UniProtKB/TrEMBL annotation:
It comes from the Bacteria. Belongs to the glycosyl hydrolase 1 family. It comes from Streptomyces tamarix. Residues 182-202 are annotated as: Disordered. InterPro entries: GH, Glyco_hydro_1. Residues 186-197 have a biased composition (Low complexity). This is Family 1 glycosylhydrolase. Keywords: Glycosidase, Hydrolase.
């Protein structure tokens, strides 16, 4: 299909256009991680284990070749704590070298690396200590960040300390519930689609874990700045795009308070803030409402709502403040209809362009995801710009990848009328 890109918005110099992945979802055989342990225990609530994932642990050069050939100038990937520190205090130099090679590989291909230190998975030993509820968690994370600085020293400028801390705090509650249900055959199996398990619904994020994550972020920030003051450090928050139905404004604000705002406010001293948005969540007087009747939904059951991105970016800038630039670190759609991926992304970019025209300082757009990958319990929801054959691991870029790559090459996104006023400094 040929999407109508309209006159377009010319992107400021240095704008990052690329795609994202996370280690556990693409590397495969993340055997020292807590997720691997959960996936593989008998009776697990996780429907499908990650196994080889898409073998990016070995195939990262091919992944980066493709992204760069497609026209992108940035790649967000993660480094895996469980590989770098498989036992408490024991650093795998081989793992550090592996990730240093990835950083160099990205730079050689003209891809700016945006590197995540923690994306949902922890080393098994860390979880066994109590994970984020252990009193030592912030110090342990800061010690890992110190080792990670060695990887970043290979040429990284943009670092994410913790991916979606707000989802991590919710998952803590969710996991406890799911584990309680594991012994219950009525609750096991079924139509589990991975990401659906992370639907915030009416779950309350764990307040202790929230505080621990903020402490860990600040501690890692300090350690990383000491290692290299030039690093641009932030974290990435899952924006739920809460929309209050008439009369439910206070309920919606209370939802946003503990699930989003507290994490955004913790970014006010950061170098940038990551926005991750997929859909909206309508809130009525009694809490979250279902997807509106007749609305199109994705393979994760989420409403197809491209405007979520622009709304999330505006909300984030309002809460964090205009002095902290925004990087879109995730936005995408789980679908096997690639035309829909293009239409959705076109709408999302148009809403982003409108926010930028209105003055929000956005420095990059990284699509989720570069590849079809392991969606936390299932391979069924395909978010990728690049398809992967599960047997041969052969990669095939989709039309959406070519379309988005051509926008990156042209330095223009749909939906805007002109260049952003005054251009803008380089990203982050
Ligand atoms: C996460 C990704 C996930 C994506 C789609 C984000 O919450 O950072 O790991 O795959 O959304 O569900």
């Amino acid at each position: 299909m040929t999407p109508s890109t309209g006159p377009g918005l010319t992107l400021p110099d240095g704008f990052l256009m690329g795609a994202s992945t996370s280690p556990h979802q693409v590397e495969g055989n993340n055997v020292s991680s807590d997720w691997w342990a959960i996936e593989n225990r008998p009776g697990s609530f996780v429907a499908e284990p990650s196994g080889d994932a898409v073998d990016s642990f070995h195939r990262w050069p091919e992944d980066m070749d493709l992204l760069s050939e497609l026209g992108f100038n940035a790649y967000r990937f993660g480094i895996e704590w469980a590989r770098i520190e498989p036992e408490r205090g024991r650093v795998s130099r081989a793992a550090v070298e592996h990730y240093r090679a990835m950083v160099r590989g990205a730079l050689e291909r003209g891809l700016t690396p945006v590197v995540t230190l923690h994306h949902f998975t922890c080393p098994r030993w860390f979880s066994e200590l109590g994970g984020w509820s252990s009193p030592e968690s912030a110090d342990l994370f800061a010690a890992y960040a110190k080792v990670a600085a060695d990887v970043l020293g290979a040429g990284v400028r943009h670092v994410v300390t913790i991916n979606e801390p707000n989802m991590v705090a919710l998952m803590h509650t969710l996991m406890r519930r799911a584990v309680r249900k594991e012994g219950d055959p009525a609750a096991a199996g079924g139509e589990h689609t991975g990401a659906a398990a992370f639907e915030p619904g009416s779950l309350e994020p764990d307040a202790g874990v929230t505080r621990a994550l903020i402490r860990a972020h600040r501690a890692a920030f300090a350690v990383l700045k000491e290692a290299d003051p030039a690093l641009r450090i932030g974290w990435t928050v899952a924006n739920q795009v809460y929309q209050a139905e008439p009369g439910a404004e206070e309920v919606a604000a209370a939802y946003a308070r503990t699930r989003e705002d507290v994490f955004l406010e913790a970014a006010r001293e950061d170098d940038w803030i990551g926005v991750q948005a997929y859909t909206r969540h309508r809130i009525g007087p009694d809490g979250p409402l279902p997807v509106p009747e007749g609305a199109a939904t994705t393979l994760t059951g989420w409403e197809v709502y491209p405007e979520a991105l622009g709304e999330a970016v505006r909300y984030t800038a309002r809460v964090v403040g205009p002095h902290v630039p925004v990087l879109v670190t995730e936005n995408g759609i789980a679908t096997d209809d690639d035309d829909l991926r293009v239409t959705y992304t076109e709408g999302a970019l148009a809403s982003l362009a409108a926010a930028m025209r209105d003055g929000v300082d956005v420095r990059g757009y990284l699509h989720w995801s570069a590849l079809d990958n392991y969606e936390w319990g299932s391979y069924r929801p395909t978010f990728g710009l690049i398809a992967v054959d599960p047997r041969t691991f052969a990669r095939t870029p989709k039309e959406s990848a070519r379309w988005l790559g051509s926008l990156a090459r042209a330095g223009r996104i749909p939906g805007g009328a002109a260049a952003v006023p005054g251009g803008g400094p380089s990203a982050g």
